[in-house]
Amino acid sequence: MSDTPNEAMPKAGISPKATPSSEIRDFLVYLAKLGAFLLILRSLIIAPFSIPSESMLPRLMVGDYLLVSKWSYGYSRHALPFFVPLIPGRVMASLPERGDVVVFKAPPSNHVDYIKRVIGLPGDRIQMRGGQLFLNGQAIARNRKADLVVAASPNTRCFALTFERVDQNGNISCHYPRYQESLPGGRRYDVLDLMDSEADTTDVYTVPQGHVFMMGDNRDNSLDSRFPAELGGGIGFVPVENLVGKAQISVFSTDGSAHWLLPWTWFTAARWNRIGETF
């Protein structure tokens, strides 16, 4: 038997030291798994969405960040990143309810995410008369509420000077006429009526099968299903296949005054009262 110690044999219970190449490989595998998990989460379960315009005031403001459930209306290629055509047609499909706030791919390009409220389902007849909504020939109840008051900020500018108010400290706020609508079934939500516009009185729209009728709550500042689908214009009837998901909860909101190099402004710019609101 040799008296020379066998230094190549590791001691019991002690693993050989990992090499740099194996650590890098393990880290890359971890990143790949994490990326796959996030892709599945975003594609099939829930996804973030930020509000780019004021078409859904008073419910949604520029600077709001939401979570959207992807399972609510089923899945199509529009639910997948980069429109990967892995899903033929639409699977697990279901119609939204009137009043749902929905993210969808807007016609005619079918590539840009919009968010609006579902007003009409297949077969419904929709019309506006003097700013009042009619559904299947029946006037939707519309009650005046106190004006919506919104502080002016980098993310919120008044629609027109007539809506601006300046307090004694020089702070500017926007005051908008607000109404509550009540759909059949009891769904209630607030809308704005800023002025007499061309879309306040319309023809009757009959929603085709496989489509829904979308409107913005800010009725005079929304290009929606009341207008023909054209680039830079309205969206017409929206195919059910274009639905991406249902708005569920507000997770953050900012007035736009934050500066990346001034961390304390990340907190002062936050609209804390809007976080946690559900739909």
Topology:
Elements: H1 20-45, E1 46-50, E2 64-69, E3 101-106, E4 112-120, E5 125-129, E6 132-135, E7 138-139, E8 141-151, E9 164-166, E10 172-182, E11 188-192, E12 205-206, E13 211-215, E14 238-239, E15 243-253, H2 265-268
Tell me what the structure shows.
The protein is mostly beta strands and 279 residues long. The protein has a single domain, classed as Umud Fragment, subunit A. Helices cover 11% and strands 31% of the residues. It contains two helices and 15 strands. A seven-stranded antiparallel β-sheet has the order 1-2-15-3-4-13-14. Strands 7-6-5-12 form a four-stranded antiparallel β-sheet, with no helix packed on it. A hairpin with a 5-residue loop joins strand 10 and strand 11. The protein is flat. The N and C termini lie far apart (79 Å).
